[in-house]
Amino acid sequence: MDRTAPPLEVASATPGIAWPGLPGVAGTSLLGFLFQLDRTQWWPAERIEAAQRRQLAALLDHARAEVPFWRARLPGFPPPDDATAFEAAWAALPILTRAEIQAADASEAMLADRLPQGHGEYREIFTSGSTGRPIRGVRSQLWELVWSAFTLRDHLWHRRDLAGSLAVIRESGAGKAPYPEGDTQAGWGFSSASLFATGPLFSLNVTTPPAQQMEWLRRRDPDYLLSHPSILARLALEVGGRPLPRLKQIVAISEALTEPQRMAIEAAFGVPVVDVYSTREAGYLALQCPDHAGMHVQSEGLRLEVLREDGTPCAAGEVGRVVVTPLHNLAMPLIRYEIGDLVEMGAPCPCGRGLPVLNRVMGRRQNMLRLAEGGRRWPLLSSGDIERLVGAAPALRQYRIEQTALDALTVMLAVARPLSDAERDAVIAWARAKFGEGFAVTVETMEELPKSAAGKVEDFVCQVPEG
Known about the structure:
four-stranded mixed sheet, about 475 residues, single chain, twelve-stranded mixed sheet, globular, about 30% helix
């Protein structure tokens, strides 16, 4: 395999020192993290887990002492070097839900009364609310430094040339990065700016129509492109056999990347797609292995559990719910927090890294088909399913399927022209063949599919409430 890495130039923050670069305080701290991450990735799983327990013990002590919500909720814990007793006590802790965070945050009971020296100031963010329950997150400056370290790990793992240009289509704020020019920054953002010299960052608002997004990309001609899978898949239809000349790699963020999407994007642009799994409140959960297909859990930054319905850990090949504990955010500790996602657990990676593996991110539980007889199943669309849908509606640009009742589906299609009656009938027949003959199917067409406030589009959503 090609292990060639582009040269990196450290940005010097010290007057009179041009080369080798001598970074400032934040950059030096980042180098300290990266030096360790370069080594801990190769530790055996048992050593990583032991180190995690040491940090978890420190987090639990802080949360019990400084955070009102956790004072009554956290029992005393065995020492971290007693692995069996510690893990048993950990598994007995209740799962933290978004509803509990919302309720506690009304009185700021989730926030630490104080931060230890060196953790900096409190920083406030809000999640996109894709579960229907938006929450406020508060993090420390130190936690943001940890976030930056994992951003840089992803760049280094995938051998990106930081001197190149990066185009980003993810800004969703009204009036921000508007077409036709978008915005331009001198560097790739705060995660890189304090340490490495980088090329320019171009950004564009996600509300820009796809044809104009593609026109903007052709003018910017970037080396790298980062956006949501739904946007990238829609852009793949606009390439028209004319890939971007300088493009080396595409990074997919914020949504579950399906295999049909990956195949379509890579075929259209002629470059590989790298997947990133993260949340705003918990940070980087998993990064795509630079050498194999799986995604490595970023265990130096969080404990990630994949649990069955009975709360026991999933084995390789099993799908379970994701429960996370960020290790270093002492401003608002989230301990055994269920984020609402389901993933498939993987076996150890042939690359030799001791970091756990996820085979794939399935998405949120609300993206599962509800069955009339009870239970749920994944409505996964294969490449063959997509091919048959395109055959039924050749003008298709993008699709979204909503389950509106136990026996009813709405197929929403963004199309280049109105569908004929025969094409509508063909789409209905496709949906019944895929999901079940008992469904009443409605077809809705439009120029573009609606996006969430964060600019995301999901290809399947169940609107049927629990119970």
